[in-house]
Amino acid sequence: MSWLTNYVRPKLQGLAGKRDIPQNLWEKCPSCGAMIYHRELEQNAQICTQCNHHFRLTVKQRLDILFDDARYDEIELPEVKEDPLDFADLKSYPDRLKSARKQTGRPDAMTVASGTMEGQKAVAGVMDFSFMGGSMGTAFGEAFITATELAALQDAAFVMVTASGGARMQEGILSLMQMARTTLAVRKLKEKGLPYIVLLTDPTTGGVSASFAMLGDIAVAEPGALIGFAGARVIEQTIRAQLPEGFQRAEYLRSHGMVDMVVDRRQLRHTLGTLIDLLRRPVSDKPY
Amino acid sequence: MDQEAYLDFEKNIAEIDERIEGLRHVTGSDDDFDLDEEVSGLEKKLEKILDQTYAKLTPWQKTQVARHPKRPHCLDYINGLITDFQLLAGDRLFGEDEAVVGGIGRFRGRSVVVIGQEKGNDIETRLKHNFGMAKPEGYRKAVRLMKLADQFNMPVLTFVDTAGAYPGLEGEERGQAEAIASSIDACFSVGVPIVATVIGEGGSGGAIAIAVANRILMLEHSVYSVISPEGCASILWRDGQEAQKAAEALRLTAQDLKDLGVIDDIIAEPRGGAHRNPTEAVLKTGEAISGALADFNDMTREQIRREREEKFLKMTRAE
Predict the structure, then answer these.
(1) pLDDT for the residue A232
(2) Contact B221, B201 (CB under 8 A)
(3) How far is the first Cα of chain B from the last one, in angstroms, to the nearest whole number?
(4) Domain A56-285: what homologous superfamily?
(5) Domain boundaries in chain A?
(6) What distance in Å separates the CA atoms of residue B39 and residue B19, rounded to the nearest whole number?
(7) Which of A81, A184, A243 is closest, CB to CB, to B169?
(8) What one-character DSSP code corresponds to residue A285?
(9) pLDDT at residue B105 is higher than 90
(10) pLDDT of residue B107
(11) What are phi and psi of A242, to 5 degrees?
(12) Which residue among A105, B68, B138, B283 is least enclosed by CB atoms within 10 Å?
C-alpha cells in the first residue's frame, strides 16, 4: 500500500459508500456457472436461462408464482411457546430465532396463504429453507394444522410446498411429535375429500420427508430438487461407498416411483390448477 | 457381570462386585473363614451405591444405559410376555426386514399384534437384525400388521428400541421416508388400542413410526429423542464429542418426556437398571401394559381412534 492509496482511498470510499448500489445484479447459476442478469432470471421464474436449473425461491417469489395474478391473502398463524426446552448450544435458541426472523422478516419457517390457482380455490403452505433450514418445530406444526383446517373451512385444495432439513433440534422431542401431528392433519383433510397436493422443492429431507411431505394425494417435484430421508453424507459413511449420480434428486425419485411428476416451474400453476380441477370436478362442464 | 458390561460411570460398582465375587470364591473353598457377614455387608453397600448412582443418572448416562448391550431387547419382552407367539414375516412388497420383529400371540390370554425393533444380543443376532435399524420393508411390514390387528380387532403392542431408521442407499431407493410416513399414518388408522413402550433407545423418525399410540410408556432409564446426542452435537456444536451437552439440552429422558406431556407413564426399572434384572424389568413392563390396555376395554373402535387423535392434537400445545 503506497502513501497515495493510503491517503486517497478513505475519501473515495466515503463517497461511494453513501450511494445505494443494488447488489447481485448478476446471479451465478450454481449448476452451470452461467452469469444471468437478475431481470432475466426474474422473468424466467428464477430458472437458469442456460441449463434450466431451478433456483431456490423466497417465500414471496413462491407465493407470487403459485397464485393467479400473484394475488393471495396471507393467514395469521397461531403463536406458540417460544423456546419450550430452554435450549442453548453454541448460541441460544431465542438468539437463533431472532436472527432468522431478522433475516427473513417472518416469524417462523412456514407461511400460509389462500387464493386461486388457475381459478381453483387453494390454500398453500410454503416452507422457508432460509429460516433455520426450514426446520419443523411446534410453530410449524400449528401452522400446518391451521392450513389444513383453513382448507376445510374454505372448501379448498391444500398445496404444501416443502423445503426443509427436517425436525428442529432445538425443540427436541416436541419437534419429533410434529411428524405425527402433521400426518394426522393430512388424514383429517383427506377424510373431508379435499385434495392434498405436495410440491417437493429443494431440499426436502429428514422428518419432514418422513411425514406429511410423502403423503400427498399427488406428489409433484421441482426439477433437480434434493429429496430424501437420510443425508447423503451419513449414507456414504454408513455404506462406505460413493452414491450414484443424481442420487436423491427429483428425477431419481420419479424413476424409483416416489413422486408422480417433475414439473417445470413455468408450468407449475397450470399443472396444479388442472390437477385440482380433475380431482374436484368429476364431470367437466367444458365442451369436449 | 462381564467386565465389559460395566458402564464408564460404574467403576465403584464393578469393584464391589469383584470383591463380593472374590469372597464368595473363598467361602466356597474354605470353611474356616466365615465371610458371610462381610459378603452381606458388601451387598448392602452395593445396593446402596446402585440406588444412589441410578437415582441421579445424567441424561448422557441414561443414554448409555438405554443402549446397554445386556439390556432386555424386544424379543426378551415377547418371550416373557407373549404366549403362542407366531412370528410373521414380510411386507408383501419387497422383502423381510428382521430389524422389525412382528407377529401375533396372546398377552394375558388376549390376542394381540406385537411390533418392535430388535437390536440383537451378540454379533450374530445383531447382524441378523441389522442392529435394530429398519429399512422401508420393516415399516411396511409394521403397516401390514397394524391392518391385520384392525381387521381382527386385536390390540397392538409396540416395543421401541432403535438408534434410528437405516440410512442406506437401498432404503432411499425404496422410499424410507414414505415408509415411515405411512407407518405413522397407519397408527392413526386402527380402531384398536395401541400401547407403545420405549424399552431402550427411541431414535427419531425410526422410532415414532411405531410409537403413535393411545398410551406411550417408557422404561425409567430409556431415552427418546429427535436426534441422537452425538448427531445433535456434531451439527449444533460442530463436535461429536459434545454429546454429553447435547444429551442435556435435548431433554430426552423418560422424566423429561413425562413433564413435557409426550408420554403417559414411566415404568420403574429394577435396582441398577433393566440389564441387571431383565426378568423383573419384563414383568413390570407387562403390568404397565396391562394397566394401559384396561383403559380401552369399554371403548368402541371409533372412540379408540378418536382418543388417539385428540391426544396427538393436544400434544406439544402449551396449556
Answers:
(1) 87
(2) no
(3) 46
(4) 2-enoyl-CoA Hydratase; Chain A, domain 1 (3.90.226.10)
(5) 1-55, 56-285
(6) 9
(7) A243
(8) -
(9) yes
(10) 98
(11) -80, 145
(12) A105
- The residue with cell 461429536 is B240
ipTM: 0.95
The grid coordinates listed for A277 are 380441477
A167 — contact with chain B (CB < 8 Å)?
Answer: yes
Percent of residues in chain B assigned helix, strand, coil, to nearest 5: 50, 15, 30
**Mode of pairing for the β-strands spanning B194-203 and B215-219:** parallel
* Residue B281 and residue B73 in contact, taking contact as beta carbons nearer than 8 Å: no
Chain A positions in Cβ-Cβ contact with residue B318 (cut-off 8 Å): 80-81, 84
| pLDDT of the residue at B261 | 97
CA B105 to mean position of chain CA atoms = 19
A&B contacts, CB < 8 Å: 165
* CA-based nearest residue to B198, from B277, B295, B285, B279: B285
From the candidates B63, B133, B189, B208, which should be mutated to test the interface with A, based on the most A CB atoms within 10 A? B208
Which residue in the set A169, A181, A215 is minimally distant from B226, CB to CB?
A: A169
Residue A55, all three cell numbers: 433456483
In DSSP terms, which residues pair with A72 in a beta bridge? A115
**Residue A224: what residue type?**
G
Average pLDDT, chain A: 92
